[in-house]
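Why show two proteins at once? Because comparison is the fastest way to build intuition. When a single record is shown, students tend to memorize it. When two are placed side by side, the eye starts asking what differs. So, the first record is below.
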Amino acid sequence: MKRDEHLDMSLSTLIADKIAEEIISGKLHPGDKLIEGKYAEEFKISRAPVREAFFLLINDGLVERIPRRGTVIKGYSKQEMYDLFEIRLLLENMSLSRIGQTIDPEVLIQIESMISRMEDVVSRVKTSDYATLNTEFHKSLIRLSGSEVIVNLYNRLGTPLKTLQKISFIETKGMEQSLHEHKQIFKALKNGEISLAQSILKHHNQHVIDRIEKAL
């Protein structure tokens, strides 16, 4: 690959990341149209890397190309939302079922530290920061499986899942409920009560869906 092609790909990734963050933060909403010229002017580049950025976002399921409308922010149907969270729960249950009755104490320390940081951002009502930590918390549950296949499958849920989760934290009580349930999950794992942790996760997932439905 030529040097300028590497540069274009780097720019495309940068632009895609910026748009993804605008979607997650709520600056961009479902149905909003993305304009190539706007981003080309903002980054002072040609439109080619911008088109590539849009393609990356389409692959991630964040935007879609609609005939006669162009590239727009994708909205998710209730069924698609249910599918995302059902897959997340399935993968997390698979992960927890792999760990037996004991967990590496170092991993528990890392999860406990993450929960402490969550408490801090909830107290300061930092929705974006909480959404990021929330994603890391659930990824830590997936990593407990020790399975690269499960981890890779979970990562493919990517930004669409994070976007929907952030919607569920619009109200402070959404973050507070999430934090409370994370603490319950951690306590169950610490005590080796894997079945209890899985049961809490099931209710946790449903509560996230309930909050999203209320917000949309």
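Second record. Ask yourself what differs from the first in the token line.
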Amino acid sequence: MRNTQAWGWLAAGVLALGLNGIYHDGGAAWAHRNLNRTLAKIAERSGGVLALATGRADWFMAKANLVAARDETASCRVATAVARVQSKIARTQTGMARFEAMSARQEAALARVEAGRARIEARVAGVRVVPAAFSPVVCPRVRVNIPRVKVSIPEVHVALLGTGPV
């Protein structure tokens, strides 16, 4: 049982190593494209749910408007072009809103770091360092005698009989 399991793990490791090499050599670009396409579809379909879950009503409305704009069938080319422009504007606005939210989070994190630094500086300013007076300590000397050992190795002679190969 263990022997079979060991061979199975070895085969899995060799297969993983080979697939990793193929991937890094660029031989699995088709898998990367398919994965990106699948992830884009999932993100597109779950964007509204994510917006509702995070409490971003404006983002949810923008996603709902994009879906509604896609579902409408325009009767003329001008209406289609206007719908495209409106959807691009909505995407730009949601992107800017996300960027502003990210900037606000980073500013809040920076403010927390600065407050922590100010607290540490205040604590350090209140600390008084008293110089220490050390008295010299005398350590006793220890002598260790290690005897020398003489080892003799006997000589070994090998005599080969015959002239043929060994």
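One difference worth noting in the second protein: Residues 77-126 form the longest helix (50 residues).
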